[in-house]
Design brief:
By secondary structure, the protein is an alpha+beta fold. It is built from 25 helices and 26 strands. It has 6 domains: 67 residues, Orthogonal Bundle (Helix Hairpins), CATH 1.10.287; 231 residues, DNA ligase/mRNA capping enzyme (D-amino Acid Aminotransferase, Chain A, domain 1); 77 residues, Nucleic acid-binding proteins (OB fold (Dihydrolipoamide Acetyltransferase, E2P), Beta Barrel); 81 residues, DNA polymerase, domain 1 (Orthogonal Bundle); 81 residues, Orthogonal Bundle (DNA polymerase, domain 1); 68 residues, BRCT domain (Rossmann fold). The strands form 7 sheets. Strands 14, 15, 16, 17, 18, 19 and 20 form a 7-stranded antiparallel sheet that branches. It has a 5-stranded mixed sheet with strand order 2-13-10-3-9. A 4-stranded antiparallel sheet has the order 5-4-7-8. Bound molecules: 2-(butylsulfanyl)adenosine (IVH).
């Protein structure tokens, strides 16, 4: 081998290319296949030669250079990465019954006959953090965290240090492909890391997932490189081409590209087989050497996945079957009452701190007084606490043998602890029974509700104002600077000296104050769905807010409709809005205090009309109101509806003068007649499929 000092630049470049390829090959044998073909010493010699050549020719360093594995220079902060295909989450299920229901729901949606097979992949659910890896022409160019699903952080340099992640896809690669999967830490590495942390007087990590998350978000990639992280590939995002026709084939493709795919993944053809897989994995769980918190079932065929689509933020074609939560015993020291933003009094157990599944638990929700009475939970009891994933800890039961002698049953206070108003249990009109929740009647005067409303208002899914966290809201509220949402937008004007005056307050500097005002300014324009969600109307969360926004499109139309006499009927006509939700919305708009506060807010902001994401305005049915009637032969009603909505159409249950199109199959009766009477266009299923380009 030629001495490095004598290499020409051309020779050096050629050798760096060869070394990158060779080292990647050995990495594959070692990390993916667990079957090294050369000794550690030989491998180290290759790496050393690579580094030495790079030291002499730094300008020749490749973007897939093996030296990136040890980390590059630290960053000041992470850039943002917008996920062009959102990173979704999964719905959770907990029982065999729900596995059957999941399969049945899919079969119904797809209109499968009993004899048709429906295959799934069954995969361990790795308890780490998900990451998205972008490959362009086979080269790893960007790696990002999930973030909120739409926008994550650029952690490319850190992910390049993970040996399970190829810097270059092996074999033929598409122009663009985003591989997604889970970054995790093994139990062994976790324990070694915590020992090191302790020896160096640093904080230890509560569990491997926190350790992996902390490691991958290090600004200095060299620290990440020392942390020994791993990666399992199991999904994908944007792709310029897709060779695979099933999840199973895709996993094979990942392996061919050099990724590590979890070896326990199986294909199953029935709910019984899925349940057997779950039980098998649950048994092996403690011996795996890494944390899993359940298993994931995915419809195998990609064409079926596409037909099934998504609801809100989760796919219809996949589900997480979670393991039961871990439990521990501890003392219930007291019961505190928390007043939520809708005025509900929630009892919260104050526990003697206890570690459950690696995390210290001090509080647990007790839900409501019926729950407390049913389990006969009393202050002073020893209780069993459980945690499931990131769900709020729960009290499962009390340990009766350890109850103190003179304990008394618990009674909820009848006055709101925040404002002293009466707290009552309303009677549910429909059932005639008392509602489970006790609510403060203090409405707008109750500080607990006002603060909580403001926190909700600026929260992630609502106005999402950076820098205006819960603490800041509480502080501004406490000294009267913020009483209602509109105040946020006049905050700057009311601080006479602008940023300086805020900066004088505890916890604020000139920079952070200026940043806050910038963040507020940015939110003077807000999409309608976020505004609706921000209002904190009972029963109206993110999904309903989106549905309302898409149905009414502008705030003017929505608010006018809700204040008009016909509000009830208009809401009834929107599929997905039931009577209880409808009533809550109308109650909100019937309250003059709310209307006044809303008007003050609207004076400050501009509301952007709703547009259905994924739906293209190019679709001929975009914005149209469609009614399906009669029997559909090529798809189920649910599928037809979901498809129409994904193209930006509104699907209504009955024909009116607002209907643009009726799709009528055989057996269509009164709706067809009504459409004929009103002169609404009527087409058959085949013409519909042609119209939307699915024929
Ligand atoms: S699939 C659209 N498969 O679980 C479906 N997720 O609750 C995307 N996870 O954010 C996820 N193992 O971090 C999938 N085999 C697996 C998984 C898995 C772990 C995590 C992932 C995701 C979360 C969903």
């Amino acid at each position: 081998m030629k001495e490095i000092a004598h290499l020409s630049a051309k020779e050096a470049a050629a050798e760096l290319a060869r070394l990158a390829r060779e080292i990647a090959e050995h990495d594959r044998h070692y990390y993916r296949d667990d079957a090294p073909v050369i000794s550690d010493a030989e491998y180290d010699r290759l790496r050393q030669r690579n580094s030495a050549i790079e030291a002499r020719f730094p300008e020749l360093m490749r973007s897939d250079s093996p030296s990136l594995r040890v980390g590059t220079a630290p960053a000041e902060k992470f850039g943002k990465v917008v996920h062009s295909v959102p990173m979704l989450s999964l719905d959770n299920i907990f029982s065999p019954l729900e596995v059957h229901e999941f399969c049945l729901r899919i079969r119904r949606f797809l209109g499968l006959a009993e004899a048709d097979t429906l295959s799934f992949t069954a995969e361990p659910k790795i308890d780490g953090l998900s990451a998205s890896l972008r490959y362009e022409n086979g080269l790893l160019v960007q790696g990002a965290t999930r973030g909120d699903g739409s926008e994550g952080e650029d952690i490319t340099a850190n992910l390049r240090t993970i040996r399970d992640i190829p810097l270059h896809l092996h074999g033929r690669a598409p122009d663009l492909f985003e591989v997604r999967g889970e970054v995790y830490m093994t139990h062994q590495s976790f324990e070694a890391l915590n020992r090191r942390q302790q020896e160096n007087g640093r904080d230890v990590f509560a569990n491997p997932r926190n350790a992996a998350a902390g490691s991958v978000r290090q600004l200095d990639p060299k620290i990440t490189a020392e942390r020994s992280l791993h990666f399992f590939a199991y999904a994908w995002g944007a792709a310029s081409e897709l060779q695979a026709q099933s999840q199973w084939q895709m996993l094979e493709q990942f392996r061919d590209w050099s990724f590590v795919v979890n070896p326990l993944i199986r294909r199953c053809d029935s709910p019984e087989a899925l349940i057997a897989f779950y039980e098998d994995i649950a048994q092996r769980r403690t011996h795996l050497g890494y944390d899993i918190d359940g298993v994931v079932y995915k419809v195998d065929r990609l064409d079926l996945q596409e037909r099934l689509g998504f609801v809100s933020r989760s796919p219809r074609w996949a589900v997480a079957h979670k393991f039961p939560a871990e439990q521990a015993e501890t003392l219930l020291e007291d019961i505190a009452i928390f007043v939520g933003r809708t005025g509900v009094l929630t009892p919260v157990a104050q526990l003697k701190p206890v570690t459950v599944g690696g995390v210290v638990v001090r509080n647990a929700t007790l839900h409501n007084e019926d729950y407390i009475a049913e389990k006969d939970i009393r202050v002073g009891d020893t209780v069993v606490v459980q945690r499931a994933g990131d769900v709020i800890p729960q009290i499962v039961r009390v340990v009766p043998e350890r109850r103190p002698r003179h304990s008394k049953p618990y009674h909820m206070p009848e006055l709101c602890p925040a404002c002293g108003s009466h707290a009552v249990r309303e009677t549910d009109e429909r059932t005639g029974k008392k509602e489970a929740a006790r609510r403060c009647t203090g409405g707008l005067i109750c500080p607990a509700q006002a603060v909580e409303r403001l926190k909700h208002f600026v929260g992630r899914d609502a106005f999402d104002i950076e820098g205006l966290g819960e603490k800041a809201i509480e502080a501004f509220f406490a000294d009267g600077m913020l009483k209602e949402p509109a105040d946020i937008f006049t905050l700057k004007a009311r601080f006479s000296e602008g940023p300086k005056a805020i900066a004088a307050r505890e916890g604020w500097g000139i920079k952070s104050a200026a940043k806050l005002f910038e963040a507020i300014e940015r939110r003077r324009q807000i999409p309608l769905e976020r505004l609706i969600n921000a209002l904190g109307i009972r029963h109206v969360g993110e999904t309903t807010a989106r549905l309302l926004a898409r149905s009414f499109e502008t705030e003017a139309v929505f608010f006018a409709a809700m204040q008009g006499d016909d509000g009830e009927h208009i809401l009834e006509g929107i599929s997905g809005i039931g009577p209880i939700v409808g009533e809550a919305i109308r109650d909100f708009f019937a309250e003059p205090h709310n209307l006044a506060a809303l008007k003050r807010l609207l004076d400050q902001i501009r509301v952007l009309p709703a547009a259905a994401p994924r739906a293209s305005p190019q679709s001929p049915v975009f914005g149209k109101t469609v009614v399906f009637t009669g029997t559909l032969e090529r798809m189920t009603r649910a599928e037809a509806k979901a498809r129409a909505q994904s193209l930006g159409a509104k699907v209504a249950g009955s024909v009116s003068k607002h209907t643009d199109l009726v799709v009528a199959g055989p057996g269509a009766g009164s709706k067809r007649a009504e459409a004929e009477k009103l002169g609404v266009a009527i087409i058959d299923e085949v013409s519909w499929l042609k119209l939307i380009g699915d024929a």
